[in-house]
Design goal:
CATH class: Mainly Alpha
Number of domains: 1
Shape: elongated
Oligomer: single chain
Number of strands: 0
CATH architecture: Orthogonal Bundle
Length: 75
């Protein structure tokens, strides 16, 4: 799992590409579950959803100009 520092250091384009990959992985995993297949890790869906949410949060913070430190605006 990547840390927030690693994610924040990536460009928007890199985050969007990784986000697309995670969404595809989640879709494939859900399809596998619905078809009755066994999942190696039962918490895998939950982890994927959280990673997607982290990336979307970072992208939205950048879009709104919110800095990660409380009370400061992005320059």
């Amino acid at each position: 799992m990547k840390t927030l520092k690693e994610l924040r250091s990536k460009s928007d384009q890199e985050l969007l590409e990784e986000l697309q990959e995670l969404r595809t992985e989640l879709r494939n995993l859900r399809t596998k579950i619905m078809s009755g297949g066994a999942v190696e890790n039962s918490g895998q869906v939950r982890n994927l959803k959280r990673r997607i949410a982290r990336m979307l949060t970072i992208l939205n913070e950048r879009k709104r100009g919110i800095n990660t430190k409380i009370g400061e605006k992005a320059s």
